[in-house]
Every structure is written in C-alpha cells, then in structure tokens.
Design a protein that fits this description.
alpha+beta, Rossmann fold, 16 helices, 16 strands, elongated
C-alpha cells in the first residue's frame, strides 16, 4: 500500500485553478494579438537547455539563480531556461537558413529563477517577449518600445511611463570620469540600486568600492541621481543636449546620445504619448548582455501595494547571437512582466465583466436517465454550431443542476424534459437574470447563441 503524502508545492511555484487560468489566458491572448499586429511571429523553445547555452550570458549575480537539471545516467548537463532571450539566440543560430531577416518573433512561456519568492515575484513565471533580429537602426528599438506601450494600453493601463537610457552613455560617463574594468562594473551595479537605496546609498556604495569622492560626485550629477526623470520629448531633448555638450570629448557617449535622439524621434513619429516616455540616465537594467538603448516601463502609482517593479523591460543586445554563430547580428527586444500585470489587474478590477469563470457556455440538464440520450444528442448539435457544452453527469434534481451551473459560472442552461421533447422544443434559462426562452428544437443553436450574445451586449 502506498504511503500517504501531504500535498505541498515547491517554494515559489503555483497551481492555477480554472478561474485563475481563464484570467491569465485573457491577458496572454490580448498581448499576443498586439504582438502580431506589429508583425511578430510566434516561436517556441524547449524548457531545458544545455548548461553551456545559458552559462556566461547573464552575469554572475543572475547565473546563481539558474536551476540545474539532471537525470540518473544523463550525459548532458542541463538547466531550466532562465529567460527567453538566450534560447532565442541559440534557436536563430540553429535555424537561420529557414528564417528571413529581419526576424521578428514573440514567445510567451514559463521561465525559472531561484529568487526569493515575494509578492509579484515567483520562481516559475511567464515571460512575454518580442525581439527583432537584423535591424541595426534605432527604428527597431522604437518599435519594440511601441509594442510594449500598445500591449499595456490594450490591457487597460494608462498610468505608466517608459524610462529610456543607453549602455553606451553609461559606459561613456564612466570613461569621462576615468573609470574602467571592475570599477565600471561596480558603477553599473550601484547605480542599478538607485530606486532601492536612494542617492545617498548609491554614493556610499561607490565610495566603498574605492571610487574617489570627487569622481562619485561628478557621476551622480551626470546621471541626475538626485532628481526624478522628467517625462516628455522636450525634457528628453534638453537633457540629451546638455549631456552632449558635457561629454563632447567621449566618442562612445556621443554615439549613445545620438542613438537616443533617434529613438525619441521615432517614438514621437509613432504617436507614443509624450507623457509615457522619459529619458533616465540613471536607469541601468541588470543583465550583462545589453549593448545599446535600454528601457523599462514603470507604473506611476503612489499606492505602496502597487510597487511591484517594472511592467516591462528590455534593450539592444547586438553581441549575444554572435556567441552562437560566426558573426553577430543586431538585436533588440522587450519583455512584459506578465505576472506583475496580472497581480495589478486583479487588484484594480481591470478584467472586463462578464469574464466567464468557465469556458463552458451551456449546461444541458438531465431530468432522468431515460432522457440522457436526448440530452447527449442536443449537446452534440450545439457543439456542431461552435458552442462549448457540458452535459450534467450523475443524477440530481433540477435545482441542484442549476446550482451547479451557477457555481461554475455557466451562463446558460438547456432544459430538455419530457414536455419539451413531446413538443419538439428546447427551453433555455439564462442564469444571470433567470430569463427563460422556449424555441423549436431545430432552432436551439441559434437561440442559444442569441442568448449568449445578449450577455455581452448589455
């Protein structure tokens, strides 16, 4: 006899019950529609990758979070994918002969990271990525930012802004004050904590890393650590012009500034609202493979319960694909924080009403076992018309069957008793308002569809 086990989940993992999963599918479907509207195609990669594919791509801090996987006697060293970006680079290098450039792809799938679980942060979670391979110009960067903005708007968000910066500018600032190598890495790491530890905390951390106080002061002034990034195209233009003058002797910084100017120009031409963009020279993004423009969408909310981190983030990573082929290709992408968006939409009540709690549209009741064949035939006819139909299983009085449909969130019930059969008719009951409608058996599908449409028309 098997020993009983107390049911538990690993830390940071979740089950999704039907009602939750329907809401998640609602979000994913709408995001995918936006991706496809911009010309991005779906791609799927495996859950497991070779360790050699993932290691050495994210930086030491991130790679400590990778889950390693092995089976008894297995010869290959495997790991669960940490994100969808490195697998994209590997997949493109393997299959590029079948693909056209530029290659626009999206993928919505789970990834795994051994992070400390907290509100809005899990060890298994979904990412929603769009990436464009093969476009060197900043039109691709502006496009993926536009995709992220459109997806957030499609879900109903309006109180957010996309902060934009450039890794070349950050590196140029470091060069301007004489930092390089490990000191430059320390600069990235400390500035990235600005939102968490504040300007004073960043300053202290830079001083502890051995950077001279005078240099720390100059860096903090250049990145505007003491002031919040001002939104809008005019503000971005003024800030970029100031930095162009200050960093005139640093070619890499000027290159980064020129790229940012083009990104903002393309975003404005794409009619992205001015209040939804901001130039933020203090924004870093942690992953080590970024090479150019970087961006992050943040919620503009004073509610402490809505501080769940960025809503979307991404950037240009022109060198990554080159790790899997002879030469690299320019690539840029963005990932939506789907888990955080779902948490916020639940808190804000942003799901449309009614959003069915079940995929079943019609429950066909069974008055007694002798009438079950008739119920099955009716269900078959309704399904042929494209409806999702369940036939009540087991034996129960009609009241209990109606209560079951109500609890499941099934909006429509078909009543097919002896009287209806004798009259060649079907009676439908709409549970929301208890409206009943009798129709000829041959018209059952059309009547059910009309009753269901009435639920969304009002």
């Amino acid at each position: 006899m098997l020993e009983k086990i107390t049911p538990r989940l690993p830390s940071g993992m979740r089950d999704f019950l039907p009602e939750e999963l329907i809401r998640r599918q609602f979000v994913i479907e709408r995001v995918a529609q936006v991706f496809e509207a911009f010309g991005y195609e779906p791609l799927q990669t495996p859950v497991l990758e070779l360790e050699e594919t993932l290691l050495g791509k994210y930086g030491a801090d991130a790679e400590r979070l990778i889950f390693h996987a092995q089976h008894p006697g297995g010869k290959e060293k495997l790991a669960l994918r940490y994100d969808l970006t490195v697998p994209l680079a590997r997949a493109f290098a393997m299959h590029e002969g079948k693909l056209s450039l530029p290659f626009r792809r999206y993928q919505i799938a789970p990834v795994w990271r051994a992070e400390r679980p907290q509100r809005g942060r899990f060890r298994e979670f979904y990412q929603c990525d769009v990436d464009c391979i093969g476009v060197e110009g900043m039109e691709a960067d502006a496009e993926v930012i536009s995709v992220a903005v459109a997806a957030l708007q499609r879900l109903g968000f309006s109180d957010f802004a996309v902060k934009i910066n450039n890794r070349k500018l950050l590196t140029g600032i470091g060069m301007y004050v004489g930092l390089e190598g490990a000191a430059l890495t320390d600069l990235y790491r400390s500035i990235d904590k600005l939102d968490k530890i504040g300007a004073d905390g960043v300053r202290e951390e830079l001083l502890r890393s051995g950077i001279a106080a005078e240099l720390v002061t100059r860096v903090m002034e250049l990145i505007g650590a003491e002031t919040a990034a001002e939104r809008g195209y005019a503000a971005a233009g003024a800030r970029l012009a100031h930095l162009r003058q200050t960093l005139a002797a640093v070619p890499l910084a000027l290159e980064g500034l020129a790229e940012l100017e083009r990104v903002f120009a393309y975003l404005e031409a794409s009619e992205i609202p001015s209040e939804m963009v901001a130039f933020d020279p203090a924004m870093v993004r942690g992953l080590g493979y970024y090479t150019g423009p970087i961006f992050e969408a943040v919620l503009l909310s004073a509610d402490p319960e809505e501080r769940v981190g960025s809503l979307a983030g991404g950037g240009r990573y022109d060198d990554l694909i080159g790790l899997f082929r002879k030469t690299s290709l320019p690539t840029v992408g963005v990932s939506l924080g789907i888990e955080r968006l779902i948490v916020l939409m639940e808190k804000r009540g942003m799901y449309p009403e009614p959003l069915q709690r079940t995929l079943v549209q019609v429950l066909v009741t069974v008055f007694n076992e002798s009438l079950r064949p008739a119920a099955l035939r009716l269900a078959s006819q309704l399904r042929k018309a494209g409806l999702s139909v369940e036939v009540f299983a087991g034996s129960a009085k009609l009241g209990k069957q109606l209560a079951y449909a109500n609890k499941r969130g099934i909006p429509l019930v078909a009543l097919l008793g002896e009287d209806e059969l004798a009259a060649g008719a079907v009676k439908f009951k709409r549970l929301r308002d208890h409206h009943e409608s009798l129709c000829p058996y041959a018209e059952a599908a059309q009547r059910a569809q009309a009753l269901l449409r009435s639920l969304t028309d009002h």
